């Protein structure tokens, strides 16, 4: 943990003081701790249901796996392949956040397909938004379905899958000199050529959808094999931005780290929870810590710290899955991680970290008392009684910063050599 020296502790930003005041409400510290615990528990229970639809063979089941960070043969993966078809909507919970469910819906390419009866049949009202996938341009059924979803007041996003195949095909053609015969500009750099192909695919898809009068259509180009590339990072960002704020945290937590922006957005959202997470450690179950002038509920802190690690993929299971996908030894990823992994967070470790934070926190509690009379009025004039709050705050803040730094390092490592990074 960096920056724990009392002199080096960062200033508490004004927004944070406001957030603390909001977390405290008008009640006393004990009440506020109970309320914060409840708020956090409620946030953990929020569900998110994402529907994935489109023609059979378009890549629905593959996408359901990919966005949950799974390979097609991993435990809990949806069956994929040319002859696999889904007859009923099937829920696939996210492996680490089971409240986030991705639904594999039946294909929409039967001759008798009717968008209204289909939506009725799949219980459209259960989903927060729809992903409509096609591995070609969007056809009549895709567009009809989008129009119906729009009518019902739900959001949908067009995803054009398998763009890796389009690029591979074009590359082959190019290498065989066929494109040259069609007067394609000779020897354009590969990235430029790829971009031109992707732009052409996107434009063609959008034009087709626009012609059918779908309001402000957007099409995201993806490859199930490389979510860090093409439009997947933009799709993630769009989903986060357009989701109602109370569901945003659930989505963000479940997102695979495909770009720096994803990690930073996740941090931004979790940052708002730091005071909320600090408060329960000062609740009724707080016990005095030997050698420290503070009382804390260490078990609550262990849970919070483990939560941060899990949110940033810093646990054995997530790292193993990532290493497999990136084709790297797990030891290589572990070697660049400075924070403890989720499994290594114990009560003893938390007490050690608290000890490091406590000295600096005394200073802060004096400052805090000036800002936040509610602490002073509740716990009396004894400054040390208010110390656990800033102490746990700084500990969580430091762990969050460290977890983010590690997640970014790991991301860089797995994306090494990736031109689209
Ligand atoms: N190259 C490539 N193949 C894909 C991609 N997405 C799906 N596929 C393949 O397309 C086939 C059909 O995919 P599947 O997910 O089963 O389609 P579904 O019928 O819509 O569920 C499978 O062989 C997948 O491996 C992709 O992004 N790139
Ligand atoms: Mg399928």
**What's the SSE pattern?**
HHEHEEHEHEHHHEHHHHEEHHHHHH
CATH topology of the largest domain: Rossmann fold
User: Which ligands does the model contain, each kind named once?
Assistant: guanosine-5'-diphosphate, magnesium ion
What is the overall silhouette?
elongated
Q: Examine the secondary-structure arrangement and name the CATH architecture of the largest domain.
A: 3-Layer(aba) Sandwich
Write up what this structure looks like:
The chain has 421 residues and is an alpha/beta fold. The protein has 2 domains: 6-44 and 260-414, no CATH class; 46-254, 3-Layer(aba) Sandwich (Rossmann fold). 52% of the residues lie in helices and 8% in strands. The chain has 18 helices and 8 strands. The chain has helices at residues 14-24, 29-45, 60-66, 115-121, 140-151, 163-175, 178-181, 190-211, 232-242, 245-254, 260-271, 274-278, 298-311, 316-326, 330-335, 347-371, 373-379, 388-414; strands spanning 48-54, 90-93, 100-104, 129-134, 155-160, 219-221, 287-288, 295-296. Strands 2-3-1-4-5-6 form a 6-stranded mixed β-sheet, sandwiched between helices. Strands 7-8 form a two-stranded antiparallel ribbon. Strand 4, helix 5 and strand 5 (155-160) form a beta-alpha-beta unit. It is elongated, with a radius of gyration of 25 Å. The structure holds guanosine-5'-diphosphate and magnesium ion (MG). The site of guanosine-5'-diphosphate has 18 residues, from helix 3 and helix 6.
